[in-house]
Amino acid sequence: MSQAIGILELTSIAKRDGTRRCDAEKRQRRSTGQQDHLPGEVFTDARGDIGAVQQAIETGTSQAGEMLVDSLVLANIHPSVLPAISGLNSVDKRQAVGIVETWSVAACISAADRAVKGSNVTLVRVHMAFGIRR
C-alpha cells in the first residue's frame, strides 16, 4: 500500500475544525497535526493510504469553500522532507545553500519533495512561513 501525506491550508480555524469533523468517520488515515502558521491561516495534514488521504483532502477541499488557500496530496513523499520540517536533518559538510520561497505551505512541501527527489541535495530545514507575514 502506498503511503501519502495530504495538506489542507485554510484561512479559518473554525472551517478547519469543521472539515476535520466532517471527515472523522474515515479512519484509514490519521491526522498528524494542525497548526496556525500565519496570522489568519491554519493547516492540517493527514497521512496514510493514498486513497484515504485523497478522499480526506477532497472532502476538506469541498467543505473549505472560499477559505481554501491551497491543498496537496503527495504519494511516496521523500523520507527527508518531514524531518526537515521539524529541523531534524543534519548535514556533515555544507557546500552551498539554496532557498526556495513559496506562497503556501502545500507549495513549500511539494517544492522540497521535488528538490530532494530530482537533485543531489540534502534538505537541512523546511521553514513553512511561521511568523512571516505576506
Automatic annotation (TrEMBL):
Subcellular location per the Swiss-Prot or TrEMBL entry: Bacterial microcompartment
Domain called BMC: residue spans: 4-86, 96-134
Keyword vocabulary terms for this entry: Bacterial microcompartment
Annotated stretches, region: Disordered: 19-41
GO cellular component terms listed in the entry, alphabetical order: bacterial microcompartment
UniProt entry tagged with the keyword Metal-binding: no
Predominant location: other
Keyword DNA damage attributed: no
Family classification: Belongs to the bacterial microcompartments protein family.
Protein's name according to its UniProt entry: Propanediol utilization: polyhedral bodies pduT
Organism: Salmonella enterica I
